[in-house]
Amino acid sequence: MTWSVYQRGDTGDWMLRFKDAEKWRDKRIPRGDGIRTKRDAEAWAREWLSRPRSNEPGTSLADYLNRWVERREKNPKVRPSTLANNKGHIEIHVKPALGSTPLAELRPTQLRDFVIALRSKSVTRCESRLLAAHTVRNIVATLRDALDDAVGEELISANPARARLVSAEIPAAETRAGENVIVHLSLAEATRLLKSEKLPEERRVRYLMAFTSGMRDGELAGLTWADLEDSTVRVAKQISTRALTPTRPKTKHAHRVLPLHSLAAEALKTWKATGWVLLVGRRPQPTDPVFPDEHGHPHRPRSAELLREDLEAAGCPTKYAAEYPIDFHATRRSFASWLEANEVPGDVVDRMLGQAGKSVRKRHYSATDLEVMRKAIETIRLDLKLDPQTVAFAALFAAPVQQAVRDSAAISWSQLRASSSRPTVYERVGRAVRAAQSRATSAPELTRASLRPYGGQCPSCSGSRSASLLLWAS
After folding, report:
1. Do 407 and 349 share a domain, yes or no?
2. What is the pLDDT, as a whole number, of residue 164?
3. Are residue 79 and residue 146 in the same domain, yes or no?
4. What mean pLDDT comes out for the span 162-177?
5. Residues 171 and 286: beta-carbon distance below 8 Å
6. pLDDT of 191-238, one tens digit each?
7. Which residues span the domain enclosing 428?
8. Domain closes at, from 321, 347, 377
9. Cα maximum dimension of the chain
């Protein structure tokens, strides 16, 4: 390779000039490497030129991205969900379009055309729906981050993804429903959902927490009983859909302590004493998740689908404005919308949502601020009532009922799944429970034999629904 070094007269920087793919290129030699004389500059240039170059065989963009992903897999700061998204963006979108291009020959015009093609790309071959704006932005962000690292490794002199003509083609950030459309539920719809007799109890409490705290789906999934203390909830971790291991929250501002709404605090107390025991079959420990699966393990349900199913069962619309599907994030938007309607200051809402404050002072809060947030949360008025008699009865028979439901052999799982009427199952268990209550049956006497004809699981869901069965029975 033909090369030489020279010193710029205006800045005094030593420069390397070399011929790369029939083109002359200039590269500034870093000052921090002890370069003082021309001999030092030449030694640095020889070492730098001996490194594997991006224009040699086997150093295409695809090869570089493979190495980039390998490094990210070893970086503990990269979330599993972020890594999975990066891999998907690269394998599905970037490599097929740009993978064979040598890294050193990647130009802004190529990336501009790539972004334009993404905007008109369908989600799947069998679906005409185009990629959402936020998906296109995320794909470009992954490629931009990788090329930033390539600049840092001195494989390329500048990041073509940051060129102005590329940025001009990136779609503006907007929600799935579009700009200025906030998909949420009204207070009346949320109340109707929460009061629905067809709603499984664990989801009733989960929805109530979401509506009155603004917590994200993953933050609710990562919540443990140790995080609940003195009518407050500490948001310190989350669980993603791709891995059921707790990770840090989405952003540093998402680490927060929130006051519990009075209804949510009472519902959680009842859920811990009765519903959780009925679902899992034992008493919860401080490290146990608040909303587990039927084995007591961390659980990230199909929240969007389940919410729409529960809304439909409660007689509520499953689409906002009859057009935009309601997902679990709508509970968070509802929380913010209700507080805004109650004239709660925006910085207070931002803190509760775990978003960055507009000043350093507003990014940190004290016990006084917690009281302000508590008053703000209590402005959300849901017309819900708990039945203490039902709660006491459920607590008395928690373990025996759970064991009876698990051991029941009269109604198989397949038979229950084939059932077309969910309330029918509730009514059958309800008759057994009311009969036991009228006879003042003691807890040990409510055994597998007495509940054998009524045991089983909810035909529409994957987990045990004993808590809801008992509440339905009352």
Report:
1. no
2. 93
3. yes
4. 85
5. no
6. 999 999 889 988 999 999 999 999 999 999 999 999 998 799 999 999
7. 388-473
8. 377
9. 101
